[in-house]
Amino acid sequence: MRPLQDEVEQRGRRIFELVDKYPERVFTKAGFYQRLMALSMHDERFKTQLFRFVAVLPSLRRSTDIIQHLGEYFSDSNDGFHPLVGLGVRVARLLPWISAPILRWNVSETARQFIAGRNPDDVIATLRKGRRQKIGFTVDVLGEAVVSEAEADKYAARYTDLLEKLACEAKDWIDPLGKSMELFPVVNLSVKISALYSQISPAAPADAIAHLGTKLRPLLRRARELGAFINFDMESYALKNTTLELFKTILTEAEFKGWPHAGIVIQAYLQDSKRDLRDLIEWGRARGTRFAVRLVKGAYWDYETTRSGQNGSNPPVFLQKPQSDANFEALTRVLFENESIVTAAFGSHNVRSIAHAQAVADELEIDRSRFEFQLLYGMAGPVKRALVEMGYRVREYCPIGELLPGMAYLVRRLLENTSNEGFLRAKFAENVPAKELLREPRELIKPAVTGIGPSAVALAKTDDPGALDGSTQKNGASLRTTAGDSFRNAPLVSFLYKDSHDKMQSALREVRKRFGEKYPLYIGGEKVWADNLTPSVNPAEPTEIVGYGTEAGVDEAERAVKAARTAFEKWRWTPFEQRAQLLDRAADILERRRYELSAVEVCEVGKPWSEADADIREAIDFCRFYAQQMRRLGRPKLTQQVPGEESYHHYWPRGVAFVIAPWNFPVAILCGMASAGVVAGNAVIMKPSEQSIVCGAMLMQVFEEAGVPPGVLNFLSGHGSVVGAHLVDHKDVDLIAFTGSREVGLKIWESAGITRPGQRELKRVICEMGGKNAMIVDTDADIDETIMYSIYSAFGFQGQKCSALSRLILLDENYDRVMERLIPAAASLRMGNPEQPGIMVGPVIDEAAYRRILEYIEIGKREATLAYQAKEVPPHGYFIPPTIFTDVKPNMRIAREEIFGPVLSVLRVHDLDEALEVANGTDYALTGGFFSRSPGNIERVKARLEAGNVYINRSCTGAIVGRHPFGGFKMSGSGTKAGGEDYLLHFLVPRVVTENTSRHGFAPEQSPENRDEFLWPKPQR
Ligand SMILES: Cc1cc2nc3c(=O)[nH]c(=O)nc-3n(C[C@H](O)[C@H](O)[C@H](O)COP(=O)(O)OP(=O)(O)OC[C@H]3O[C@@H](n4cnc5c(N)ncnc54)[C@H](O)[C@@H]3O)c2cc1C
């Protein structure tokens, strides 16, 4: 027998012969589309702009809007873009009423090339045509992202309707091969789970399966009655495990156990796809009934690599295209080897992948009627025809839907067709020779590309795989990255992995066992107890006491200042490298105790799992980032190179720092302020919030274990009005770092301005207060994204983030479209005890907050219109129903005052100017956001929105250390940026030492750039 490669080549050449016999272009329509593709493939920047323009076009209603966007996207077409484009833009500006409809028509036609019909009736004509060509079908429904249960219900109804119509149309259709037809029902429907449940959380597969099961069972039941086939499509990696689990769970149920006409997708670009396929086969064998698998490479490669790049985690996908190809081939063999239980479908346009499947089937003597090839509608027509001619079973994947929601699908197809890595471009646009296209993919895999995150991905896209190895990494930073990008954040925990899920569950159980424990103060390296204890309760179950904090009084505060003062005199001369290492050790301990600390947060402040984990991640990042920054700032630096004189600029610590933290980021903010103080050489007294004492005590334990010298970090739990006030006024406290309410912040600011007898320093105050954050929604905004991000920003962690969205500003033109989806989306949120995974809205922090927020809701009812309020809340705990007010005017209290709870005010404005005026019209300037796809408007808002952190087309919460230095101005704060390059400077005093180095006219030629011997080692005391 000939080697497999020869067999593959022979079959591949045959396909190419047939493809070339019918010289139809691979993309079935010429003209506009062909020209755009050609331009896109020559110019990456044009491609980006074009695809963005295509995505926004359907949402533009007026010709003038279309032309305005055209101009904004392609205005600089002279520099680099094709001259034709520039000319087109100019002509369009002159004749908008002609150009805009033509443009819209062309793009619609392009979309129609990939979308088989607007609705079920429309698609039938397409399916009939396929039938004449002996091509079968599977139909998929395109639509907007499902953001509410009302939308999910509509989708389910559309699937059912489609199924009925297809079954009715195809009842007399016969199998094109007339063989093995029992394996391949004519009617084939592809479903996506994200369309059927709006609240899928990767952390809560059981919840998703319960909800999805309810929607899917009737559909599967009906499909069985009608003799149809249902395929579970595969989406992003976050949904993969849930999709697999759902498939197995439902099809093991007695009702469906013996039904063979269901299938699922395996994505060969995933590194764990082989394991998943083997698990599925094992499951199938145990179940004892045939099922189907569509093997594909996967449609979300760019999305997965971007996501993991942002999180700094390993991408779940292979990084080299030939790896995906090779894995596709390996899985092809696994499928055929298990043909007795699994029916295979190969979803690929790649002739090599197809020819390989044919060769392996022949090798294993599997009849060609027992598997099928599936290709997308509108793509690779000649390949389909060739396969039919060769006697293979071919099925076309036909999406149906309206143009607007179809744009996301269109953009995916355009990307695929123009991808540098893709087969279609290589064959049909670049005419790469058949021999090259049919090469064995394993031969093309380059030596291992190591590393994670964006740099590894970027590298995978280049031709330089050897360049990224351990040697280029230092202090968690890649030396190849640009300035400002030299810090690597700790990745977030992904609860979609069972292992992480189990660890979190077990941490929660362990933390519960320790409920009621008492936590001491920590002063001068000693644990200190006092008579009074403060209970810290679980806001979801207020009868439960998570722990007791020792209540410090004025005596303990005095002891702490003395201990800090003494420790400072030594710590200030401790080389910065040792101080930085202390933070690195603390970061390591935080990593080790990550689940435990997250679990404490869940119980003590009611944070949902992923929010709690993000808080611990932030604490880890603060330690590592400030350690890195201190290494940058610590060495005295030459100011100017001049002969005969040298001046070194450097920093001294300020002295004793008093850190006052809030409960809403109970580990991160406390840790951020304290670690900045400590690494800068100050001695720190930290006071946690009264509502999160246990979290604070845990952080103290971390630093104790990390080896913080006695007195350098002191832990003082107690009432703000007693110890807080005492220390703010204390003459021996040199610096106050505060994050909390405006009311307290302003008092501290004022009090710190008074110089007391014996005070050495002018007190420095770092003061971060609240916000009344606004997001503006432009007329051309992507509504799916607007809803998802607004809901998350407003109601995530019950709206108790200082960055939370509290004013949504909608332009008239968009108002109805946003509101009709916003309210059902809010109504679909999962509310409950955050100990359960996947909860979005938990309790507010305590009874006082509960009462205050309810009061604001009453004020809102009087001032504005209550548009939505959740009806049911859990019976115990401080749960406030998510609430939305409309008809809110800028001068109303609910539009001006910080509420700090799940209450959203919606304001309606005429245009962007008014929107900016309203957004900027409060006392605060913390975060703000804008949803728009107009480059011109985005630039305007970037320039004019008054907020310390401006976010475009994303949520306005979730700042990441080093990436989004966080903090506001006006009444939101003193303009400091936690997690930013200049943050440590607030904890330091700058100094310059100048020495005349010339002696009798002789001077050394050069002074070193850094000189630190005059600081370290330091005077013995
Ligand atoms: C009928 C049908 C149904 C499909 N259903 C699904 C589905 O449910 N879910 C889904 O996710 N996909 C699905 N796909 C796959 C997806 O839509 C793409 O069409 C497919 O991945 C393209 O692969 P190809 O073999 O045709 O082309 P090729 O050009 O050979 O491969 C392109 C693919 O290689 C992978 N790739 C690209 N660059 C790299 C890289 N640097 N490193 C590693 N891998 C890389 C990507 O998966 C990319 O799509 C389906 C495809 C078809 C034809």
Task: Give your account of this protein's structure.
The chain has 1021 residues and is α/β, with parallel strands linked by helices. The strands form eight sheets. An eight-stranded parallel beta barrel has the order 1-2-3-4-5-6-7-8, surrounded by seven helices. α27 (693-706) links the parallel β19 (683-687) and β20 (713-715). α3 packs antiparallel against α16, α9 (205-226) crosses α10 and α23 (576-592) crosses α27. It starts with a helix and ends in a 25-residue tail after the last strand. Residues 233-234, 265, 267, 269, 294, 296-301, 317-321, 323-324, 347-350, 353, 374-376, 397, 416, 421-423, 460 line the site of flavin-adenine dinucleotide (FAD).
Layout of helices and strands:
Elements: H1 4-21, H2 32-42, H3 44-56, H4 63-74, H5 83-94, H6 96-114, H7 120-132, E1 136-141, H8 149-169, E2 188-191, H9 205-226, E3 229-232, H10 240-252, E4 262-267, H11 273-287, E5 291-296, H12 301-311, H13 321-337, E6 342-347, H14 351-363, E7 372-376, H15 381-389, E8 394-400, H16 403-418, H17 423-429, H18 434-437, H19 441-444, H20 453-461, E9 473-474, E10 477-478, H21 498-513, E11 517-519, E12 521-523, E13 526-528, E14 533-538, E15 541-550, H22 554-571, H23 576-592, H24 594-605, H25 609-633, E16 637-638, E17 645-653, E18 656-660, H26 668-679, E19 683-687, H27 693-706, E20 713-715, H28 720-728, E21 735-739, H29 742-752, E22 764-768, E23 773-777, H30 783-795, E24 805-811, H31 812-827, H32 847-863, E25 865-869, E26 883-886, H33 893-896, E27 903-909, H34 912-919, E28 924-925, E29 927-931, H35 935-944, E30 949-952, E31 969-970, E32 988-996
Parallel strand pairs: 1-2, 1-8, 2-3, 3-4, 4-5, 5-6, 6-7, 7-8, 11-15, 18-19, 18-21, 19-20, 21-22, 23-24, 23-29, 24-27, 26-27, 29-30
Antiparallel strand pairs: 9-10, 12-13, 14-15, 16-17, 17-32, 25-26, 28-31
Helix pairs in contact: 1-14, 1-15, 2-3, 3-4, 3-16, 4-5, 4-6, 5-6, 6-16, 8-9, 9-10, 10-11, 11-13, 12-20, 13-14, 21-24, 22-28, 23-25, 23-27, 24-25, 25-26, 30-31
